Amino acid sequence: MKQNKQQLRCGYCGRPAILRPASEIYHDPRKNGYVYACSHYPACDAYVSVFPDSKIPMGTLAGSALRQKRIQAHQTFDQLWLSGIFSRDQAYRWLSYKLGLPLSQTHIALCSNYLCDQLIMESQKVLKNNRQRSCVA
User: What pLDDT does residue 3 have?
Assistant: First the structure.
């Protein structure tokens, strides 16, 4: 049976993405693994990491602004489970509910700028409410 492989494309310029060593993209020979980068890289700086020991992208290609927004979203969201407010599993279930996404699609590497902003805002609400409760106790 022949597999129907879809070509990963850049959401910014429409060009195909190509698999490249992470060390080339990050300019660090110690970086292992691979990333899918826009074939027009570096003029178009969109890329996404792949899962270790695979060729499966972790999310969608992102330019530098979206990558920074995703990092910020992760930093805020991760506080929910690192602080013990939720378990990690509970945090992702909560996020799935808040964003109206199936749990299987609830990954920050798939989030747009808008969803990152929503995620940050909702996470900050929980963090603020939890801090207020702990001050009262």
Answer: 42
